[in-house]
Description:
Layout: H1 47-55, H2 74-85, E1 89-94, E2 99-107, E3 111-115, E4 122-125, E5 129-134
Antiparallel strand pairs: 1-2, 1-5, 2-3, 3-4
Amino acid sequence: MKDTIDSIPAERPPQEDFANxxxxxxxxxxxDHNHNSQPSGERRERPERFERQERGERNSNGGGRxxxxxxxxxxxxxxxxxxxxxxxxxxxxxxxxxEIRGTIEWYDKTCIKLSRTGAPNLMIYKPSIRYMxxxxxxxx
Length: 140
């Protein structure tokens, strides 16, 4: 035998008078809150982000600054490594104009070690170097 449950319609709450409700709308004074000016489905780019991209800034920390350049480039390291491996005779010109001849034995962040034949080896502080060149090259 089937137990049948009579379906009883659910009671509805009494209807409220919607005509008397007041709609509250906030005043939008800023222009970027006005969404009616752009077509629907199209995303708008934020102006400050677009301006930072035009200036080439990629840092997203919100400071609006570029990230600092690296402490040291690999070009200097590559040059020293190449001259050390080939044992190239170099001329190092110091800030006072003195020329020192020798081969680069090793280097670090602050100085280079120059090996010389018939004279003592020298450790030269990098800020005291004006420039350097290969001994066989013409400087002018």
